[in-house]
Amino acid sequence: MLIHEITEEYIEFRGNGKLYKLEYEHEQECCEEVYADFLSLPSSFLGKDGKEKRLFLADFEEDLDKLIEEVEGQGFMLCTKDGDKILVNCYDIQNGWYSSDLAVVLYEITLLKEKPITQMIHQYI
Q: How many other C-beta atoms can be found within 10 angstroms of the C-beta atom of residue 77?
């Protein structure tokens, strides 16, 4: 599966006619920030073969247990089918009073059909 979109809250993957969303879950309180920093992912990375690779062209694992590898005190690695790994930093910014619980969830959604309609919109440029 290939990365289709990265936002502050999730990474969207597409592959085999399916849409996948990797999200982090944490019940935020008023005075804390506990999150996975998806936006800090690089646009390219060095693969295990030493060659530069583009993040949006990498083919990632579709099983959550194979997709992520925990890195204690830092976050987790996103793992490709080629064995490359890209670090996703996770942060817990607070005064110690609140929960540090953080989880990642991979949702699988079947795509029924997608049709571009760019030519059909009113443009006010």
A: 16
